[in-house]
Amino acid sequence: MSKTAVTSVPIHSVLAERWSPRSYTDQILTKADLAPAFEAARWSPSANNAQEWRYIVGFRGDATFDAIAKTLAGWNATWAPTAGALVVAAAQVEDAEGKANPFAIYDLGQSVAHFSVQAHADGLHVHQMAGTDTAALDEAFNLPAGIKSFVVFAVGNLGSPDALPEQLAEREVKPRERRPLDETVFYSAL
Ligand SMILES: Cc1cc2nc3c(=O)[nH]c(=O)nc-3n(C[C@H](O)[C@H](O)[C@H](O)COP(=O)(O)O)c2cc1C
After folding, report:
1. Which atom of ligand 1 approaches the CA of 131 most closely?
2. Domain topology for 27-159
3. Whose CA is nearest to atom 13 of ligand 1?
4. To bridge 24 with a disulfide, which of 19, 79, 83, 113 should be the other Cys (CB 3.0-4.6 Å)?
């Protein structure tokens, strides 16, 4: 099975090969395994260097992992708890005076992207999920005023598609697709 992107020009192999699996081995992860990816996330750029991102990490078997898993919706609740770690990605969306930061979510997404690329370079796989109850996460982790959770992502070692229910196994082996470059980037548009 190849999930490598079919690109119109060569790109860095880590970017071409990164993808979002749903099957993970039962290997336990440690803080040390995730440290380089979180370091990459920390060094992501942000508007005014505000670094709005915050991450809460649960390792499979601990109470944080179980609390995160409980908030997952639909299919996410079936496959994601097999990953080695579940991470809540949250952002400081308002400052101490309650003033909104319009770039907080943009910056959080970029930081998670840095995480996912470094994790992939380190032999791990990452799968982001919007299908989670963010209000329940905010409450479960008692997030401070102005900080809100947005997604959960699973991190782990790639497992076999055969370990998944049939519907998910089919999606696991399907080639990845994207809109063509010429419908995405518009040069000299005027
Ligand atoms: C913000 C965001 C939310 C997502 N939510 C879900 C989700 O709830 N469940 C899921 O299975 N995949 C989810 N995905 C994964 C996407 O479906 C996946 O990244 C996309 O199909 C491209 O596939 P690839 O990452 O393998 O290239 C999400 C991805 C992002 C970036």
Report:
1. 8
2. NADH Oxidase (3.40.109)
3. 129
4. 83
